[in-house]
Design a protein that fits this description.
The chain is α+β, with helices and mostly antiparallel strands. The protein is 23% helix and 36% strand. The chain has 3 helices and 6 strands. It has a 6-stranded mixed sheet. A hairpin with a 6-residue loop joins strand 4 and strand 5. The longest helix is centred in the first third of the chain and has 17 residues. The N and C termini lie far apart (46 Å).
Length: 149
Amino acid sequence: MQAVPDDLRKTIEEYHRAEVAFQKGNPQPFKDLCSHAEDVTIVGGMGGVEKDWARVEKRYDWASSKFANDNDSEPKSEVISLVATPEMAYAVEIERSAVRMAGSSEVRQLALRVTSVFRREDGQWKLVHRHADPLVSVQEPSSNLQKHP
């Protein structure tokens, strides 16, 4: 494993700034950082799984539209781990923010566990996978099991 390159660190910083715009209803800076390849995937914080840029892009547009565009809060990302090889990298983070969803006046706290995978494409780091889900405390496995019909 090699040290994290400066250009990847800059991409991660852009990624965090793009998250601010995303939670204000503007997904474009976020989408600009994404790979547009067929193998790009998202397992988003609002559920579901998508593969292929056309489907992933629609999911980003949809998810961003769910946030109020006048939110003054900025998400804060705690990087737990950032690992890079010359061609691939991943970041494990906790994203925390105060959000207001579109159509609501209530501000709520949002904490997500996020894993992001980046790949070098034409000399630039691009997001190829994002997995986000709610941050929860450690639970017994049975709390996640569903009864079989």
